[in-house]
Structure formats: C-alpha cells, structure tokens
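=== RUN LOG ===
request id: a7f3
mode: sequence -> structure
chains: 1
length: 105
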Amino acid sequence: MAHWFHRNPLKATAQVKFDLKLVASDSQTIKICSDLRQARLRLLELLPDANHEIDVVEPALTLYLALLRGLIEVPEGQSSDWSKLRHAIRFRWTHSVLGNPPESG
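=== RESULT ===
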C-alpha cells in the first residue's frame, strides 16, 4: 500500500519536434531549433537509464536548458526582454501516476 500513491518526479511530455520553419526566418533560429531537437533526444536517451553517472546527464541537461532559455529570451543588446518565439512551442504534460496521453492546455 505504501507504493500506491507514488509520484513520479519525471512527467512525460508529447514529442516536441521544434519545427518552426513557418515562423523562423533566419538561419540562427533554425540552428537553435535543430540544436534543441538534438539536445532533447540526447537527454531522453539518458534519463530512463539510472546507471548513467551524473557527469554524463548533467551536461546534457545544462545544454538543453540553455538552448530553451535562448528560445525564451532575446540576445543581449536588443530592446525587448522576451523572444517572439517563446509561445511558438507548446509542451503538453501527462499525469505522472496515470500515464495518460498528454492533454492540451
């Protein structure tokens, strides 16, 4: 009975392709999206296996989060604080216990 109310700290998301060809017009944005896709795939390969050392997982997570931050914030020296691309990608989360398909919202 102790394991029945287990909360999984890692919730699943729907597959995110970071495909912004209709929105992205410059090569720098397309490069960030490509790097994000590769970093996410690498991180998703590492997370399910608990045998990986922290020295392997931490750099992959740091790279992925840095690229996500680059998608949200504009580069230094520009007038706005937020990137116009921050709403272009939507993450959909599952319920951690139920494992249902991701819900919109």
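=== NOTES ===
The first helix runs from residue 27 to 46.
Confidence is low (pLDDT under 50) at residues 1-6.
=== END ===
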